[in-house]
Specification:
Blueprint (H helix, E strand, L loop, with lengths): L3 E4 L14 H13 L4 E3 L4 E8 L2 E8 L6 H11 L7 E7 L7 E5 L7 H10 L5 E6 L9 H5 L5 H15 L2 H6 L2 H9 L25
Length: 212
């Protein structure tokens, strides 16, 4: 069961709409869905909310340490409340996925993501859950820093917001530990693929389908 849900980002108004703050977008949307407020807490160096889901205490956390020190906030809260790494889910921006895609996975490396790098170091393991929110890649490695700290184009922002909303709706499965079902819900895109044309009828405008 997931007991600590974390969204990564950078604090400050100038970073709010940047790609690197996709994790903040998700944790803030989840807080709205659960009708709880993320309140600054100096003890855990982040914005924190506590709620009870299915009889279990669940924490929401948005570290305020800046991205590259995210692990300090995560580890302090997890250790104080004796939350194991496998009971933690971290939402973050993902260069290797296009905007509009979101993927759930367990464990693995940090792939150069500075927030994950610090969480790995502070927890002493990479064995926690990740919610990877696609932001796309600029195509050139030297442009990555400017890309993640830049604002997505309107169509990319819309695609990212739709992906975040889809992932938020999976919270009952995540907190219940039904991770395979959560993956199915999260990985399914909102737009279904069009059906191929039937071979027994013309495909021009004069032959519209009457009720498949």
């Amino acid at each position: 069961m997931i007991k600590l849900l974390v969204g990564l980002g950078n604090p400050g108004h100038e970073y709010e709409a940047t790609r690197h703050n996709a994790g903040f977008w998700w944790i803030e949307a989840l807080a709205r869905e659960l009708r709880v407020d993320l309140i600054p807490d100096k003890s855990y160096q982040g914005r924190v909310a506590r709620t009870s889901l299915q009889g279990q205490t669940v924490w929401l956390l948005a570290p305020l340490t800046f991205m590259n020190l995210s692990g300090k906030s995560v580890a302090e809260l997890a250790r104080f409340f004796k939350i194991a790494p496998q009971e933690i889910l971290v939402a973050h921006d993902e260069l290797d996925l296009p905007a509009g895609q979101v993927r759930l996975k367990f464990g693995g490396g940090h792939a150069g993501q500075n927030g994950l790098r610090d969480i790995h170091a502070r927890l002493g393991t990479g064995d926690y859950w990740r919610l990877r929110i696609g932001i796309g890649h600029p195509g050139v490695k030297s442009e990555v820093s400017g890309w993640v700290l830049g604002k997505p184009a309107p169509e990319q922002r819309k695609a990212m917001e739709e992906a975040v909303a889809r992932a938020v709706q999976a919270w009952p499965l995540l907190t219940a530990g039904e991770m395979e079902k959560a993956m199915q819900a999260i990985h399914t895109t909102a737009t279904p693929r069009p059906k191929p044309p039937r071979k027994d009828r013309p495909t021009g405008s004069a032959a519209e389908p009457t009720g498949d």
